[in-house]
Amino acid sequence: MSTNASLFDRAQRVIPGGVNSPVRAFRAVGGTPRFIARAEGAYLFDAEGRRYIDYIGSWGPMILGHGHPAVLDAVERAVRQGLSFGAPTEREIELAEEILKLVPSMEQVRLVSSGTEAAMSAIRLARGHTGRAKLVKFEGCYHGHADALLVKAGSGLATFGNPTSAGVPPEVVQHTLVLEYNNLEQLEEAFARHGQDIACVMIEPIAGNMNFVRAEPAFVRRLRELCTEHGALLVFDEVMTGFRVGLESAQGLYARLLPGFRPDLSVFGKVIGGGMPLAAFGGPREVMEKLAPVGPVYQAGTLSGNPVATACGLATLKEIQRPGFFESLGARTRSLVDGLLDVAREAGVPMSGDSEGGMFGFFFTGRLPRHYGEVMATDKERFSRFFHAMLDRGVYLAPALYEAGFVSAAHTEADIQATLEAAREALRAR
Ligand code: PMP
């Protein structure tokens, strides 16, 4: 039988670092990544046959848990009808209609295959629409690995202590302004200096790439005002938060706090594909119709709107609209975070935590961080020890202190209790 270690050795010979996406390599926490053989409900099973309670959920998409019967049925049916046509299908319309029904800020949507593509395309569209070059992002927010966005990005890169990636010429990022999250002063200054040149501001409204940090309502309010005043587009990157923090996504939560609030463009991924490669960006018709083939902004994809991926996404979106879905997912996720905080308190370990819907974060510090610098100042050694102690006890948390966690509808109260028992032992063991 292959072991995780033997597979990792073999993988490193043929795949850089043995992985196809950096954070999977466990660089931030050390040790050997688990090679997953299969998954079922709330559980992952590795190559050695060990079972783990999965709090990664493929980094967000698996909101129903693994192998949900309605999703499998839809995918199996779609597979038999054809894997890819490179021509339009009715299912693409259905998925677009479903997404638009749930996201009132968008009148049109374009489907793509990854969050990276969606964020990159939204920026090109914002630049094409406004005729401006500059874009604003926030330190610790990750919007995929498009060149212009690899400026102190917070996911994976942060591990290697690299503020930017090699291979991105400085000229390519010269129009990208990076500001501190939740820092009103920097925001005001950026607009005062560059207001008429800013095409868009892109933000993760709840930043899951620095664990779990909410944009403060006053910050979002002012951001909205400044974008409107200066004619810049506000782009909400909801790749992680979309249909994950609630059926209304993060923009719906902010609209409740700030009546009438809406972003100009939105970017989705993860949950809308239910585990298949699918992402999207959308906004008002007036802006979206600047896209090819009707407008001058080019954007395309061989597998965009893929018939199997759209079937998977549609089935997933149908399930999460069942009455009470987010109430019970939110309650379960809260009980996990509350439980962790209790366990930490009993053990005399400083911890803070937060959650919304099926997304959560916890920090080894007594106060919730407000931006990237504060996240990275939390106790990394303690996090790594805790991560491994949990993994040894069959609980699979995100292998980096700057990543959010995810609970699925398949997680039971018993799974949560087993997780808390593992945490109790892990914190006692030190
Ligand atoms: N935006 C956000 C907020 C993300 O979390 C991610 C991926 N974790 C991306 C964009 C990029 O998506 P993908 O990995 O599908 O390219």
UniProtKB/TrEMBL annotation:
<keyword id="KW-0663">Pyridoxal phosphate</keyword>
<protein>
    <recommendedName>
        <fullName>Glutamate-1-semialdehyde 2,1-aminomutase</fullName>
        <ecNumber>5.4.3.8</ecNumber>
    </recommendedName>
</protein>
<dbReference type="InterPro" id="IPR015424">
    <property type="entry name" value="PyrdxlP-dep_Trfase"/>
</dbReference>
<keyword id="KW-0413">Isomerase</keyword>
<dbReference type="Pfam" id="PF00202">
    <property type="entry name" value="Aminotran_3"/>
</dbReference>
<dbReference type="InterPro" id="IPR015422">
    <property type="entry name" value="PyrdxlP-dep_Trfase_small"/>
</dbReference>
<keyword id="KW-0627">Porphyrin biosynthesis</keyword>
<feature type="modified residue" description="N6-(pyridoxal phosphate)lysine">
    <location>
        <position position="270"/>
    </location>
</feature>
<keyword id="KW-0963">Cytoplasm</keyword>
<dbReference type="InterPro" id="IPR015421">
    <property type="entry name" value="PyrdxlP-dep_Trfase_major"/>
</dbReference>
<dbReference type="InterPro" id="IPR004639">
    <property type="entry name" value="4pyrrol_synth_GluAld_NH2Trfase"/>
</dbReference>
<comment type="pathway">
    <text>Porphyrin-containing compound metabolism; protoporphyrin-IX biosynthesis; 5-aminolevulinate from L-glutamyl-tRNA(Glu): step 2/2.</text>
</comment>
<dbReference type="InterPro" id="IPR005814">
    <property type="entry name" value="Aminotrans_3"/>
</dbReference>
<comment type="similarity">
    <text>Belongs to the class-III pyridoxal-phosphate-dependent aminotransferase family. HemL subfamily.</text>
</comment>
<dbReference type="GO" id="GO:0042286">
    <property type="term" value="F:glutamate-1-semialdehyde 2,1-aminomutase activity"/>
</dbReference>
<comment type="subunit">
    <text>Homodimer.</text>
</comment>
